[in-house]
Amino acid sequence: MSVLFISDLHLQAKRPDLTAAFAQFLIEQAPQAESLYILGDLFDAWLGDDAMDDLQQTVASQIRQLINSGTAVYFMHGNRDFLIGEDFAAQTGVQLLKDPCVITLGDQPVLLSHGDQLCTADKDYMAFRHYIRNPATIQKLLSLSVAERIAMAENIRNQSQAANQAKTDEIMDVTPAEVEKLMTEHDVKCFIHGHTHRPAIHTLTINQQPAQRIVLGDWDKKGWMLHWDESAGFSLTEFPL
Fold first, then answer.
1. Given CA atoms 220, 62, 66, 38 in this order, what sign does their dihedral have?
2. How far is residue 100's CA from residue 184's CA, in Å, rounded to a whole number?
3. Global pTM value
4. Which residues contact 51 (CB under 8 A, 6 or more apart)?
5. Short-list 187, 190, 216, 185, CA closest to 204
6. Are the CB atoms for 42 and 52 separated by under 8 Å?
7. Alpha-carbon distance 93 to 74, whole Å?
8. What angle do CA 100, 109, 211 make, to 5 degrees?
9. Helix (H, G, I), strand (E, B) or coil at 10
């Protein structure tokens, strides 16, 4: 049994190299795995299943081809593509996951999350996240025209980029106490997430037991994937785009 995990590809028209790299990944690496987990921010922006552009349609078709070949694909929302819905799932065949959720690898429970909910030191972002993820807000967003959604997304992106320049690395990283709390609540010794763009395997102690937190890398100057199989365990690797 072989399982792959990726996150934070931020696919967008301005970065055709990322789209090409993902297409190659779906042809070369992903078919070798029984399952592929995409833990959020596959796309740099998602304005609704009814607003898919040509790039997103192409990616959806490529994912469908992978699933048809026998690899199961699971998707968890990120902060950039939380509006992905049931229509996208039906079109591609992906299985949508709640954030957080627990899966089993071998005989080990493993906690999965995109990771942004753990950045509690970033008070402004947490307040925005609470607002934007509210079902009433989502309903209001999806009632807007596509043009209005595009303009709003661009405005939010510009404000976010400006705000992030004034934030320290510590504020934008996960809060260790929140990690411990979430792992304790779910009674796990392994936690996989993305969002922070700081790929690493961290050694922890949870309930006086050895544990690990694995952070997936973002696709920018290089790509990242986490591989798991029963014999070798976890391997976090980078590769050229």
1. positive
2. 13
3. 0.95
4. 146, 149
5. 190
6. no
7. 9
8. 90
9. coil
Q: What is the DSSP letter of 141?
A: H
User: What strands, in cross-sheet order, belong to the sheet with 2-6?
Assistant: 95-97, 72-76, 35-39, 2-6, 222-229, 233-240
Tokens linked to 206: 């949870």
The structure tokens listed for 156 are 């939010």
- Residues 59-97 as b/e (b if ≥16 CB within 10 A, e otherwise) read bbebbebbbeeebebbbbbbbbbbbbbeebeeebebeeb
Q: List the pLDDT tens digit at each of the 241 positions of the chain.
A: 899 999 999 999 999 999 999 999 999 999 999 999 999 999 999 999 999 999 999 999 999 999 999 999 999 999 999 999 999 999 999 999 999 999 999 999 999 999 999 999 999 999 999 999 999 999 999 999 999 999 998 888 888 888 777 678 777 899 999 999 999 999 999 999 999 999 999 999 998 999 999 999 999 999 999 999 999 999 999 999 9
Question: Are 44 and 80 within 8 A, CB to CB?
Answer: yes
Contact 241, 224 (CB under 8 A): no
Cβ proximity of 233 and 223 under 8 Å: no
